[in-house]
Write a structure and sequence with these properties.
With 322 residues, the protein is of the alpha/beta class. Helices cover 34% and strands 18% of the residues. It binds threonylcarbamoyladenylate and magnesium ion.
Length: 322
């Protein structure tokens, strides 16, 4: 996705859907309408494609993304649904509700999609074009809102083009979004349902369905508080940064052509997109390789473009846990 190429505007017909699905299958990026806002979609199993989302949006952080599926059956192949989650999905899917549930270890999802957390946010959108695309593609689609980082969410194809022209493969044009605000996000702490983000489905409807009040959390506070995120995300082994040469006694995670003899490399050629795609997976692999007490030393990563997001995550991984 690094070479600037024209972004195709695909029509709302079977040919447009088939072409959009083809881009996704090739690891490309396709914006598509949902009833809430336009999403910027990529194959949720493909680390490289998911990294491309962050690159296209210019996002400095790898926050976790929502994975879109056509229905509850497809969702259950990816995650475990406790009874309350299954009840909400049955009542409100397809629709503007996202459920954060424990991801299955064998789900085949990119680690980047849930930013190293052991939960995943899942949603079955109701928009007929989103449904058609998900069924034509036949796999899970990671999609944040299809805007540049910091800009407002797009509710028309033209908004997507304004922000992302030349940075993504295509936009599937479904006209204006009906709901216009993002989905409501609900997670669970034990048996307690928690409202992580108010959105297109009113909290009252969720409480009525569950017969129980929702706790309220600020989602970003909950996810990005360093201790909390680190405890999910950081490897068991201690991580040290800025290792330009082979570290004594530690495993070495390299980046770029000068890191000869690294145990693993994020990208031998120094490609930040490849490095982002490898980041979480490589940290897991090194953690498995590490002897008790052995550290993981990471080569310096340039602090621009996706490198900023990589460094943000590495700094969290290197923060001593309490
Ligand atoms: O309506 C929507 O939800 C749109 C359309 C495209 O579906 N999507 C959307 O995605 O708003 P995004 O990436 O902008 O919002 C994702 C948010 C994260 O910022 C975080 O708050 C929450 O979902 N999230 C995702 N995964 C999570 C997880 N595992 N635990 C807690 N929160 C999570
Ligand atoms: Mg957004």
């Amino acid at each position: 996705m690094s070479a600037p190429a024209p972004t195709s505007l695909l029509p709302d017909n079977p040919d447009g859907v088939a072409r959009a699905a083809g881009f996704l299958a090739d690891g490309g990026l396709v914006a598509f309408p949902t009833e809430t806002v336009y999403g910027l979609g990529a194959d949720a199993r493909n680390d490289h494609a998911v990294a491309g989302i962050f690159q296209a949006k210019g996002r400095p952080h790898f926050n976790p993304l929502i994975v879109h599926v056509p229905d509850l059956t497809a969702a259950q192949a990816l995650a475990e649904f406790p009874p309350q989650a299954a009840r909400l999905a049955t009542a409100f899917w397809p629709g503007p509700l996202t459920l954060v549930v424990p991801r299955r270890p064998d789900a085949g999802l990119s680690d980047l999609v849930s930013a190293g957390l052991d939960t995943v946010a899942l949603r079955a959108p109701e928009h007929p074009l989103a449904q058609a695309l998900l069924r034509a593609f036949g796999g899970p689609v990671a999609a944040p809102s299809a805007n540049r980082s910091g800009a407002v969410s797009p509710t028309r194809a033209v908004h997507v083009i304004e922000g992302l022209e030349g940075r993504i493969d295509a936009v599937l044009d479904g006209g204006a979004c009906g709901v216009g605000v993002e989905s409501t996000i609900v997670g669970f702490e034990g048996n307690q349902p928690v409202l992580l983000r108010p959105g297109g489905l009113p909290a009252e409807a969720i409480e009525a369905c569950l017969g129980q009040p929702l706790d309220i959390r600020a989602p970003n506070a909950a996810i990005s508080a360093p201790g909390q995120l680190a405890s999910h995300y950081a490897p068991g082994a201690a991580v040290v940064l800025g290792a330009k040469t082979a570290p004594k006694g530690a495993l070495w995670l390299g980046f770029g052509p000068t890191c000869m003899g690294a145990d693993l490399t994020l990208s031998a050629s120094g490609d930040l997109l490849e490095a982002a795609a490898n980041l979480f997976h490589h940290l897991r692999l090194l953690d498995d390789m590490a002897a008790p007490g052995q550290q993981i030393a990471v080569a310096p990563i340039p602090d621009h473009g996706l490198g900023r997001a990589i460094n943000d995550r590495l700094q969290r991984a290197a923060t001593p846990r309490t």
